[in-house]
């Protein structure tokens, strides 16, 4: 059984929620979010300047 990234880090909050909200509010582009996630999802929020 494969663990989700959230359970692997032991965090209840979903890190993708911040990226999703930032895209929906127009703070970042979908393309920028996808690139950051594809490069390293664990640092995507920091690299995008979204907290």
Q: Secondary-structure blueprint of this entry?
A:
Blueprint: H1 5-9, H2 16-24, H3 30-40, H4 44-48
Describe the structure in your own words.
With 51 residues, the protein is an all-alpha fold. The chain has helices at residues 5-9, 16-24, 30-40, 44-48. The radius of gyration is 11 Å and the shape is globular. The N and C termini lie far apart (30 Å). The model has no long low-confidence stretch (mean pLDDT 75).
Quick recap:
With 51 residues, the protein is mainly α.
Instruction: Write down the secondary-structure element order.
Output: HHHH
Can you tell me the overall shape? Answer: globular
Oligomer: single chain
Helix percentage range: 55-70%
Structural class, judged by helices and strands? mainly alpha
Fraction of residues in β-strands: under 5%
Radius of gyration: 11 Å
Round the mean pLDDT to the nearest integer and report it.
Answer: 75
Q: In total, how many beta strands?
A: 0
Largest sheet entry: none
End-to-end separation: 30 Å
In terms of per-residue confidence, which ranges show pLDDT below 50 for 5 or more consecutive residues? Answer: none
SS element count, helices = 4
């Amino acid at each position: 059984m494969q663990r989700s990234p959230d359970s692997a880090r032991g965090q209840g909050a979903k890190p993708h929620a911040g990226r999703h909200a930032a895209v929906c509010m127009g703070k970042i582009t979908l393309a920028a979010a996808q690139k950051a996630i594809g490069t390293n999802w664990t640092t995507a929020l920091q690299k995008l300047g979204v907290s």
